[in-house]
């Protein structure tokens, strides 16, 4: 999955990404899913999630984006000025793809190689 910040504004620093990873791991656990890999840059994040087929991708995505946006807004007051229209951190769109046929190690390496902001 890939989530992009609203208007692709470059607002996420390492400390935001570190906290966001933990929040997203907690959300995944609530859905009986496993956040296998997480990484991001200042305007987007990549997630590799193993989730049971009973979980609708849209429900998982909405929860991941909603909870992470809410928690970061509460915990990092400096981010509030970057929230646009209805206090949203994330763009309304997202990318979700299936990697059932691809070797998992390749997907993990791709996500690990994403640059974190300085």
Automatic annotation (TrEMBL):
NCBIfam families noted in UniProt: transpos_IS200 (NF033573)
Alphabetized InterPro entries for the sequence: Transposase_17, Transposase_17_sf
SUPFAM superfamilies: Transposase IS200-like (SSF143422)
Membrane-traversing stretches: none
Official protein name in the record: Putative transposase
Single GO biological process annotation from the record: DNA transposition
Matches recorded under PANTHER family: TRANSPOSASE FOR INSERTION SEQUENCE ELEMENT IS200
SMART domains: Y1_Tnp
Family annotation (Pfam families): Y1_Tnp
Molecular function per GO: DNA binding; transposase activity
Signal peptide: none
All residue ranges annotated as the Transposase IS200-like domain in the record: 2-114
């Amino acid at each position: 999955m890939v989530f992009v910040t609203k208007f692709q504004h470059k607002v996420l620093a390492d400390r935001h990404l570190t906290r966001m990873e933990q929040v997203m791991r907690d959300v995944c656990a609530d859905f009986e899913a496993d956040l296998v890999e997480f990484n991001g840059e200042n305007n987007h994040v990549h997630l590799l999630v193993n989730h049971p087929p009973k979980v609708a991708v849209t429900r998982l995505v909405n929860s991941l984006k909603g909870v992470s946006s809410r928690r970061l807004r509460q915990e990092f007051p400096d981010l509030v000025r970057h929230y646009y229209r209805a206090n949203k951190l994330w763009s309304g769109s997202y990318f979700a793809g299936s990697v059932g046929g691809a070797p998992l190690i390749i997907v993990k390496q791709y996500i690990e190689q994403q640059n974190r902001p300085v």
